[in-house]
Amino acid sequence: MIKTDIVIIGAGPVGLFAVFEAGLMKLRCHLIDAIPQAGGQLSEIYPKKPIYDIPGYPTVLAGELVDKLMEQAAPFKPGFTLGERAETIDELPNGNFVVTTSQGTKHEAPVVMIAGGLGSFEPRKPIIENLLDFEQKGVNYIVKDPDQYQGKEMVISGGGDSALDWAVYFAEKDSFVHLVHRSDRFRAHKDSVTKAYELAKQGKLKLYTFAEVKQLEGKQQLEKVILETKDGTVPIKTELWFPLFGLSPKLGPIADWGLEIEKNAIAVDTFDYQTNRSGIFAIGDVNTYPGKLKLILCGFHEATLAVQSAYKRINPDKKFTLKYTTVQGVQGFD
Amino acid sequence: MSDINITVIDREGVSHKLIAPSDMNMNLMEVCKSYELPVEGICGGMAMCASCQVYVHTNNHFGERNDDEEAMLDDAYNVKPNSRLGCQISITTELEGAEFELAPEEP
User: Fold this and answer.
1) Which of A211, A245, A279 is the last residue of a domain?
2) Homologous superfamily (CATH) for B3-102
3) For chain A, which ranges sit under pLDDT 70?
4) In a domain, A294, yes or no
5) Could you point out which of A18, A51, A60, A167 has its C-alpha 20 to 30 Å from the C-alpha of A92?
6) Do residue A50 and residue A153 come from a single domain?
7) Which residues contact A297 (CB under 8 A, 6 or more apart)?
8) Cα separation of A304 and A311, whole Å?
């Protein structure tokens, strides 16, 4: 069991800034995120996009802002559970909460802050009738432990970075890759697209453009995928298909935590951004209240106020008052 | 006045007459959201999701898809020849009288 003062669900910009504000009040934090790196949407969706409305930064790339927030939070030694989705929140008799992830990791704290943004990122699944029959039986939406697939024949679908990167990776590792894409334009980086075309020339990869996997066949395990191409249907014998169409956010288990939900967001009190469950706060894009704006800068403000109430819950009898960082600087944890 | 009139048909088939300002740098996704139509606009208008996909009903208002938009639509669901991303359609006076239909929500 990981024990801390505040469990923060979501390691996006707002969750990271909450670590800093909590640290100033000598509260320790542990962050949980379903994606394997910190930064939330900023890292996952638009790391190379400039942001223009962070006060004091006329322009900053999303990825850079995440790096800066990580640096700012670092003195307060946050813990991270990454690549695991927060599934349940249970309340103990002593009033503490236990947050359990998809992998069963347990975190105990007197305060939970949900900084879950748009929810957790889930793979976008293609629409194929018997798709569910083959999930984990040949159909995989993410590539885990790539070594096990080395040298095998496989079909990869998609035109984005993950599809192209994995196609190139496996083709270079002596697997035979059929790369299937709906058009001849790719969202992926130019470099990986060029590489894929080169590998196709060398006969290590077969590229199908204007093509789509439409049917799956097999008894227990996937045995065959059937493509629809502009020249008709093409059957491919394979035990492996990776539909890599990117990730889309879903509110997911947050909806089952007994919190008041309005329009796909968690209703909070603007006094301290607490939810209807005492001790559970919601900050950033995941919350809603009259006048709500989904802006990073508003999330920073929400995190700062939420932490003040968190302190009072954790230290009910201990006096504290706001201190300016200009007076004492930042005193990190050992 | 720089307001224009457009029609948006929601996923239940209900037609909404919308008045949109053409001088506020708005796009169709934003106009739909301002009328509280069920358009998510998850990525905020960067052509990085397809939650604002619409079908353009009026031929002369189809406009041109840009590269980012084309690439996104290649990976999206329920795409038709008249699909566009609402966030990439700027509200200009040329859209006067245009009609759009919201594409089904992604599964």
Assistant:
1) A245
2) Beta-grasp domain (3.10.20.30)
3) none
4) yes
5) A18
6) no
7) A53, A54, A55
8) 11
CATH number, position A255? 3.50.50.60
Would you state the pLDDT for residue B32?
97
Amino acid in position A58: P
Q: Note every long-range contact of A43-47, with CB atoms under 8 Å and residues 24 or more positions apart, other chains counting.
A: A44/A121, A44/A247, A45/B43, A45/B46, A45/B48, A45/B49, A46/B43, A46/B46, A46/B48
pTM: 0.82
Q: Return the amino acid letter for A143.
A: V
CA neighbor of A307 nearest in space, from A17, A9, A3: A17
Q: Are residues A117 and A141 in the same domain?
A: no
| 10-residue mean pLDDT series, chain B (107 residues) | 91 96 94 94 86 94 88 87 96 95 89
Count of domains forming chain A: 2
Q: Cβ distance A182 to A153 under 8 Å?
A: no
Residues in chain B within 8 Å Cβ distance of A249: 42
**Closest residue in A to B68 (Cα–Cα):** A187
Pick B75's closest partner by Cβ from A118, A127, A245: A245
Q: What is the ipTM of this complex?
A: 0.79
Q: Which residue of B has its CA nearest to A295?
A: B44
Q: Does residue A245 contact residue A158 with C-beta atoms inside 8 Å? A: yes
Q: What is the pLDDT of residue A192?
A: 92
Last residue of a domain, one of A245, A276, A297: A245
Q: Would you list the domain boundaries of chain B?
A: 3-102
Q: Closest by alpha carbon to A269, among A288, A284, A253, A250?
A: A288
Residue A212 lies in domain: 125-245
Contact B42 A249 (CB under 8 A): yes
Q: Which pLDDT value is given to residue B102?
A: 97
